[in-house]
Amino acid sequence: MGQAALAAAPAAPVSLPAFRDPTREAFMSWLQIRLAITPDQAEALEDQLLQLGAVSVTFMDAEDQPIFEPDLNTTPLWSHTHLLALFEADTDPDALLAHLQLLRGGDLPEHQTEVIEDQDWERSWMDNFQPMRFGHRLWIVPSWHAAPEPDAVNLLLDPGLAFGTGTHPTTALCLEWLDAQTLDDRSLLDFGCGSGILAIAGLLLGARQAVGTDIDPQALEASRDNAERNGIAPERFTLYLPEQLPQEPADVVVANILAGPLVSLAPQITALVKPGGRLALSGILAEQADEVRAAYSGAFDLDPTADKDGWVRISGVRRS
């Protein structure tokens, strides 16, 4: 069907037939269509692709753009986004694109189709996560791997959808910093603990006890489970929602959250660090570093800013 005929055709009905081609080989698992879109196109295209039988629709950043702290209950998209829709393998791509163009009532965004071969998706996902070393002593080891250095400090943690597993630069910056500290017999506070990875790392590296706090009750549960998996006694790692957090200063405080809260909570976080105690802040984009440093420079002697892949860590010692 030519483009002129498409433009003149009547609107497609709500229920459309599946676009099957029985000659397509059965071993091909999925047909994927990728469209380069702008945020204002996302909702309509998602609805149209689902209407055409997509089994999933996802969005990806097309240009590695950061999304700054979004408003509550919003799901912002990047200015240049890739929409990926998966269809069953025997879907005819030409018929699919023709019907999508009918629904759109005009030309499609830049697009391409490809076949995603069948594979053991769980094994493929697991193979992407290998043990990772941070600093000189500390390893993060998924449960399905043996520890590369059994005598090192090995933190057992499986990757998940949220809360922090060491793969993000901000978490890596904090883990590397903790590995470089002398933590023996120190108290530690993990402000925004997520999975508990930083507090548990600190305890395994020698801290006497740790406190974790997070606004998400599920994060506290994840922290508790991960501590148990790593043999951390409950009395060594106590967990609180922010409104329940005891206001007792710690020798070492880590806060891997976001730049906005780090600035607005600077007085509270400062008060939680003992005089002479150490502080590490992350979750900060490079262009936000000056604002965060300014919020803490009055109470701390700050180290040079450390950076990794566009993210930074700010650390220092609280003045007596």
Cα-based radius of gyration, to the nearest Å: 25 Å
How many domains make up the 3D coordinates?
A: 2
Question: Looking at the structure, what is the overall shape?
Answer: elongated
- Helix fraction bin: 25-40%
Total count of strands = 15
Which stretches are poorly predicted, pLDDT < 50 over at least 5 residues? 1-28, 63-76
Q: Class of the largest domain in CATH?
A: Alpha Beta
| Helix and strand pattern | HEHEEHEHEEEHEHEHEEHHEHEEE
Give me the CATH architecture of the largest domain, please: 3-Layer(aba) Sandwich
| CATH superfamily membership of the largest domain | Vaccinia Virus protein VP39
What number is the mean pLDDT? 83
- Assign the CATH topology of the largest domain: Rossmann fold
Structure explained in plain terms:
With 320 residues, the chain is α/β, with parallel strands linked by helices. It folds into two domains: 30-64 and 76-118, Alpha-Beta Plaits (2-Layer Sandwich); 163-318, Rossmann fold (3-Layer(aba) Sandwich). 28% of the residues lie in helices and 28% in strands. It contains ten helices and 15 strands. It has helices at residues 3-8, 39-51, 93-104, 121-127, 169-179, 197-204, 217-229, 259-264, 266-271, 289-296, and strands at 28-37, 56-61, 81-88, 111-117, 132-134, 138-141, 153-156, 187-191, 209-213, 237-240, 250-256, 273-285, 300-302, 306-308, 311-318. The strands form three sheets. Strands 8, 9, 10, 11, 12, 13, 14 and 15 form an eight-stranded mixed beta sheet that branches. A hairpin with a 2-residue loop joins strand 14 and strand 15 (311-318). The termini are far apart.
